Amino acid sequence: MRRPLPLSAAALALPLFFLLLFSSTADAHNITKILAKHPEFSTFNHYLSITHLAGEINRRLTITVLALDNSAMSDIISKHFTVGTIKNVLSLHVLVDYYGAKKLHQLSKGTTLSSTLFQASGSATGTSGYVNITNLKGGKVGFGSEDNGGDLNSFYVKSVMELPYNISILQISKVITSADAEAPTAAPLSLNLTEILPKQGCKAFCDLLIATGAAETYQSNIDGGLTVFCPTDAALNAFLPKYKNLTAAHKVSLLLYHGMPIYLSLQMLKSNNGVVNTLATDGGAKYDFDIKTDGEDVTVKTKVVTATVTATLIDSEPLIVYELDKVLQPRELFKAVPEEEDEAPAPKAAKKKKTKAPSPTASDGEEEEDADSPIGSDESDGEPEDQKSDKDGAFGSNGQRSIVAMILSLWLSVLLV
């Protein structure tokens, strides 16, 4: 018969269990934010963003980034490579395995080959997508592209940041040279949004972008990455009576609210749940919304309406267009739906709901969340910011403090028994 766990052991096991729980729910790494704390890597960080390698790095669970300081990056810039070629060169500096400083000096047989994002991209030929890592005499570690005959032309400098078995950022002395990675690449095809959208079933939305001038803002953001949420023509036509009541400036804000100045593939979209900014975000005007994932379903939730991503219309990096079943309505322009209406109502709340008068502007077939009319101002509806903190994730800042306090109280009570 198994003996019960002693109270002292239980008291020690309890906080350990929750420590592991909180560790497993930690936020994923963000290479851009990490490198932003190190100005000497600002050029490297900049090119990770414009080549969209930053997104690739962030969505991988295990990765090693061989970072180049501004001086080392000048060797790449001076060669006047296209953005596509720079992407290939830098992707050779991202290893799809974890190498911390300790592991570098404890390599089995003193040397190893590591695959890179260049290899994973399918652009590398032969062994050019592999990097040779060799632990040399005196603790020196060298790096070289395998297609250069194992020539170790770059060396380990220091560890910038390590999160064991998740992400490691190591500074190396020089660019890892590779003839294959540095080969000229074709310039990316020109993407004209106003030509693409009508062909993908977004004619009504595109017509509004052109009519208001918002199309220019969308187009200017494509090269740096653009994600568009396009309401179906049916959804937009049903929304037009509200749209016509908006001022000219508010119409532009509403349309810009359907774009994000970053490329997010469907996989990236699913892994980037939480509050995000839009093309309409400007200073005090937040114009943000929540991205939520439930299994394979992705929803975009404002404080007014929740829309579902129903299809990917075009995915041609740096542009991606998703189809939505509703028009996104920002709380800056429309009355927010009370938070309690999104949850199961209590018995008392049900009574009040029976006596609630219907909105005079709502049509018979229109959903309740779409029934509110424009508030006619860029001002927020005044909802306290702290109301959304606990809904942004299972462990929001306030919610986490409450849970930690509860755990500590329970732990102390067990110790005092």
TrEMBL record:
Keyword Ribonucleoprotein belongs to the record: no
Compartments (UniProt record): Cell membrane
PROSITE patterns: FAS1
Pfam family membership, one: Fasciclin
Keywords: Cell membrane, Glycoprotein, GPI-anchor, Lipoprotein, Membrane, Proteoglycan, Repeat, Signal
Major location category of this protein: membrane
Topology of the protein relative to the lipid bilayer: Lipid-anchor; GPI-anchor
Coiled-coil residue windows: none
Similarity-based family: Belongs to the fasciclin-like AGP family.
Descriptive protein name: Fasciclin-like arabinogalactan protein 2
Organism encoding this protein: Cucurbita maxima
